[in-house]
Amino acid sequence: FIFDFFNARLHFGCSRMQMYPLEMEGNSNPKTTNKPKYSKFTQQELPACKPLLTPEIVIAAFALIGALFVPIGLASLHASRQVVELVHRYDASCVPVDDKVGFIQNSRTDKTCTVTMTVPKYMKSPIHVYYLIDGFYQNHRRYVRSRSDKQLRYKSAAHLTSDCVPEGDTADHAPIVPCGLVAWSLFNDTYTVRVNGVVTQVNKKDIAWKSDKNNKFGKNIYPSNFQKGRLIGGATLNESIPLSEQEDLIVWMRTAALPTFRKLYGRIEKDINANDNVTVVIQNNYNTYSFGGSKALVLSTASWIGGKNNFIGIAYLTIGGLCLSLAMGFLVLYMVKRRNFGDPSNLSWNR
Amino acid sequence: MTLAIGDGANDVSMIQMADVGVGINGQEGGQAVMASDFSMGQFRFLVPLLLVHGHWNYQRMGYMILYNFYKNATFVLVLFWYVLYTSFTLTTAITEWSSLLYTVLYTSLPTIVVGILDKDLSKSTLLAYPKLYGSGQRNEKYNLNLFVLNMLEALWQSLVVFYIPYFAYRQSTIGMSSLGDLWALASVIVVNMQLAMDIIRWNWIIHVFVWGTIAATVICLFVIDSIWVLPGYGAIYHIMGQGLFWLLLLIIVVTAMVPHFAIKAFSEHFVPSDIQIGREIEKFEALNQCVYGPFIC
């Protein structure tokens, strides 16, 4: 009889005669059951929403993106077209001789150069004056690391120049402040701007970030032993001005992301009218000739979109147009090939 | 693949030889249980073990492996494209702290939570249509085609994340840390949006972890850029104050997601898998009939 009982259980698998062994004795006693305490989390029954892509949602999403992006693209293009920008490359024209490297490295040559531009449209102040450098990899790994941020802020950290090699210490092992290749290669062209013959002042105050001036560069740190070596990489610094006020240095030390970059030189705080002649007298000191780089002078008005850049407007228009055409494409596809939702006859074994 | 189930001492060698051995803890003693991979109290528990838990496990593992490869590939490719513009020196586009925190904090927790909690079909659907189990047998959630598609999506999204800011900021005054912050934030948002699009069941835990991770990323970027010793000091405050940053973030996220969304919309409607039909049945048809016998529903 017992054998038949077990045989029946094995054949019918899930017969109701089988009971969990422990439950046979005192099955109303909670201490002898191994059933875990029920919780929605452990039984994976948390309430949840199950979004599903229906045709309405797909078409609405694409149409919404298209409807949003096309106006943004048009607004961006409009803002970019409003920006008036004058770019004048001067490194080739300012050095008339063939041996440009020799010319620029010779401290006795006269590096004054005059550049004239005609303003095509009315430029509203403030007009930003930038220098645009091409081919200069400020993002080179060794260059980027060649600085000492602690030294820039604390007088007591002046000797921490180990990261700044080869521009860390002088030949007498005195620390250079500010040390490193980034500071050593400081840009040193100067621009004197005349609008219709009248000298217009270029305001060089407040061109660096406030956060840098206040917290990254010390108010009691003065340059010492700077550019005193055999190789001069760029500008020299006035040793009586503290680093927090050396704004050209601060702007230069915020290393640029890409090899073609511009940095703020100053601002012109007067309006310039259309067809005005802008003459800039440049001291062409900086050597971009050794590595095949180029320099240019840029005068630009500002807008909420930054400088003159049609890319963002064109990109928005492209993606907006693409999404609108995808919306229409999907609409056509959904109408051509319909399918019932949630129809079990679509399951692969029912077809 | 073989599964062997047994409850007695004579079943031990069979259970050990099979790929998956299931032992029944019952009247015949505990030897089968000790030799098995899974043990249970009754033979009928085999049905939910395979059809429900086995199916869920396959779907979760398959998706998580593919997603992990994809999210790391996207991030690394963004770093790779930048190397082309640093004279081939290995300057990282993204600050070193953000690179470290990417796998640890910015993208890890949503992955874990989705891998534990997400389900494609409910228990009742899986038990009502046992042939849905065939999706695992046919390798529908993890196969070479899916892997290649994943890698192509990673490639596309890394190109979008890198090049849209590149063209927008190409000749501007942008600094390395500011652009790096934009790349980091865009990568994290794109990768989490991709996960969000593939999550099938949104419960409150998944909501908290997915959106919370993006918020945590923003907080970390602010914290990293508030340390004066690091080169990126102040960068995020500066760049977030520009309108161009937000416009770029929006277009990067949308452009990166459009192919995935379009492929998903197309394949789910015009070449639906059984799982997809199952999901629709759950949502649009009440499951109130039991067709397959008295002990399965």
- Please tell me what the overall shape of chain A is: extended
SSE topology string of chain A: HHHEHEEHHHEEEHHEEEH
The overall strand count of chain B is: 3
> Which percent band covers the strand fraction of chain B?
under 5%
Measured distance between first and last alpha carbons of chain A: 49 Å
Helix content range of chain A: 25-40%
Number of separate strands of chain A: 9
Shape of chain B: elongated
Sum up the structure in keywords.
heterodimer; A: 351 residues; five-stranded antiparallel β-sheet; four-stranded antiparallel β-sheet; 9 strands; 15% strand; disordered N terminus; B: 297 residues; mainly alpha; three-stranded parallel β-sheet
Task: Map the helices and strands.
The complex is a heterodimer of chains A (351) and B (297).
Chain A: H1 2-12, H2 21-24, H3 55-82, E1 85-89, H4 100-105, E2 112-118, E3 127-134, H5 141-145, H6 149-153, H7 181-184, E4 190-195, E5 198-200, E6 202-203, H8 210-216, H9 247-253, E7 261-268, E8 277-283, E9 294-300, H10 311-336
Antiparallel strand pairs in A: 1-9, 2-8, 3-7, 3-9, 4-5, 4-8, 6-7
Chain B: E1 3-6, H1 12-17, E2 20-24, H2 31-35, E3 38-40, H3 46-83, H4 96-106, H5 108-117, H6 123-128, H7 134-137, H8 144-168, H9 176-198, H10 204-224, H11 235-240, H12 243-270, H13 274-284
Describe this structure in words.
The complex is a heterodimer of chains A (351) and B (297). Chain A has helices at 2-12, 21-24, 55-82, 100-105, 141-145, 149-153, 181-184, 210-216, 247-253, 311-336; strands at residues 85-89, 112-118, 127-134, 190-195, 198-200, 202-203, 261-268, 277-283, 294-300. Chain A has two domains: 53-83 and 307-338; 85-302. In chain A, helix 3 runs antiparallel to helix 10. The model of chain A is unreliable at 1-27 (pLDDT under 50). Chain A contains ten helices and nine strands. Chain A is an alpha+beta fold and 351 residues long. In chain A, 29% of the residues lie in helices and 15% in strands. In chain A, a hairpin with a 2-residue loop joins strand 4 and strand 5 (198-200). Chain A has a five-stranded antiparallel sheet with strand order 1-9-3-7-6. In chain A, strands 2-8-4-5 form a four-stranded antiparallel sheet, with no helix packed on it. Chain B is mainly α and 297 residues long. Chain B folds into two domains: 3-41, no CATH class; 47-292, no CATH class. Helices cover 65% and strands 4% of the residues of chain B. Chain B is built from 13 helices and three strands. Chain B has helices at residues 12-17, 31-35, 46-83, 96-106, 108-117, 123-128, 134-137, 144-168, 176-198, 204-224, 235-240, 243-270, 274-284; strands spanning 3-6, 20-24, 38-40. Chain B has a three-stranded parallel sheet. In chain B, helix 9 (176-198) packs parallel to helix 12. The model of chain B is unreliable at 286-297 (pLDDT under 50). At the A-B interface, helix 3, helix 5, helix 6, helix 8 and strand 7 of A face helix 8, helix 9, helix 10, helix 12 and helix 13 of B.
